[in-house]
């Protein structure tokens, strides 16, 4: 585990959307300020801000806060493990989102970790999965059991996908979707085992009406036999 020096600061962010080569890039403009109290993180959440930390080899760690709506825009644009641009007191930094903690009930973001990123090098990151075709599985009387919600990949930072699409619409009951079935660009390497199961279609309750009818017939038979 890496050790980082920690300066207790907060960062107040302003989201700037700019276009580079037709791709939307997000710049979070940061202003340092000192921590005011032990419970400041809870107070900021109540005000609509999300606490977080930014760290790296070439800088001391920063505790920061960012408006929840702005953070959601950034994650929607780059993904929960994507790269973001941060301007701190006029100094530009590129950061890699390392972890987004969410409330298990409300799914609201509770905390975010950002690691400073320098140069164009290979990175290892978890990329979230987006499932498609689940409605067809249900229509065919199946239930989709999801075993993974992300895949670990290695690639150059500029090639890191925002998410990976998993199309399960053609799966029949008893069939599984595995890592080997995922299609990605040649520049991206999947680090998980190719035999790892991502999702499986199991048998659903397709005869609800028939079961209810059979149950009624049994009840009537029992009543008539009494």
Structure in words:
This protein has 226 residues and is of the alpha/beta class. It folds into 2 domains: 6-118, Ribosomal Protein L25, Chain P (Beta Barrel); 126-209, RNA Polymerase Alpha Subunit, Chain A, domain 2 (Beta Complex), CATH 2.170.120.20. The protein has helices spanning 40-46, 68-78, 134-139, 208-225; strands at residues 6-7, 9-20, 23-34, 49-56, 59-67, 83-88, 91-102, 109-117, 122-132, 142-146, 150-156, 164-167, 176-178, 189-190, 197-203.
Brief summary:
The chain is an alpha/beta fold and 226 residues long. It is 19% helix and 48% strand.
Helix and strand layout, with pairings?
Layout: E1 6-7, E2 9-20, E3 23-34, H1 40-46, E4 49-56, E5 59-67, H2 68-78, E6 83-88, E7 91-102, E8 109-117, E9 122-132, H3 134-139, E10 142-146, E11 150-156, E12 164-167, E13 176-178, E14 189-190, E15 197-203, H4 208-225
Parallel strand pairs: 1-5, 3-6, 4-8, 9-12
Antiparallel strand pairs: 2-3, 4-5, 6-7, 7-8, 9-11, 10-15, 11-14, 13-15
């Amino acid at each position: 585990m890496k050790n980082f020096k920690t300066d207790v600061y907060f960062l107040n962010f302003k989201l700037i959307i700019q276009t580079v080569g037709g791709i939307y890039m997000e710049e979070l403009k940061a202003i340092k300020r000192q921590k005011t109290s032990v419970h400041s993180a809870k107070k900021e959440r109540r005000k609509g801000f999300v606490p977080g930390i930014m760290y790296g080899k070439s800088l001391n760690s920063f505790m920061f806060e960012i408006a929840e709506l702005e953070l959601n825009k950034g994650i929607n644009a780059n993904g929960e493990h994507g790269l973001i641009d941060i301007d701190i007191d006029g100094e530009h930094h590129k950061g890699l989102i390392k972890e987004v903690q969410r409330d298990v009930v409300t799914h609201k973001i509770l905390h975010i970790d950002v690691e400073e990123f320098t140069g164009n090098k290979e990175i290892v990151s978890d990329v979230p999965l987006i499932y498609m075709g689940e409605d067809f599985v249900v229509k065919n009387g199946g239930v989709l059991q999801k075993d993974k919600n992300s895949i670990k990949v290695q690639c150059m930072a500029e090639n890191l996908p925002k998410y990976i699409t998993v199309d399960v619409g053609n799966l029949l009951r008893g069939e599984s979707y595995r890592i080997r079935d995922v299609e990605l660009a040649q520049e991206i390497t999947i680090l998980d085992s190719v035999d790892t199961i991502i999702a499986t279609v199991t048998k659903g309750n397709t005869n609800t009406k028939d079961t209810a009818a059979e149950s009624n017939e049994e009840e009537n038979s029992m009543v008539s036999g009494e």
